[in-house]
Design brief:
Elements (H helix, E strand, L loop, with lengths): L8 E6 L5 H6 L5 E8 L11 E4 L3 E5 L2 E7 L3 E4 L3
Antiparallel strand pairs: 1-2, 1-5, 2-3, 3-6, 4-5
Length: about 80
């Protein structure tokens, strides 16, 4: 089964290793992950972008953790 994002949504594979620097700076739940699918209406983000985010609908697929969210809800991009 292929994961395909629709509209301006992103499907993000959640990083297994947490980035402690971001967790220490906030009491809210934030995570990082890699975009595995970007909907056709996404304007700024693409597959492969490493993101910092705090909201989204979590789900599991093939033993991996994913989050789906709309592009405007991304907090930042970690690409170096």
């Amino acid at each position: 089964m292929t994961l395909k994002a629709m509209q301006n949504c992103l499907i993000i594979e959640v990083d297994v290793e947490k980035h402690a620097m971001f967790e220490l700076l906030s009491t809210e739940k934030q995570e990082t992950g890699i975009v595995v699918s970007a909907g056709p209406d996404c304007k700024e983000l693409k597959v492969g972008d490493h993101l910092y985010f705090g909201v989204g609908q979590e789900f599991k697929h093939d033993g991996k953790d994913y989050v789906v969210m709309r592009e405007p809800h991304v907090l930042g991009v970690l690409n170096g």
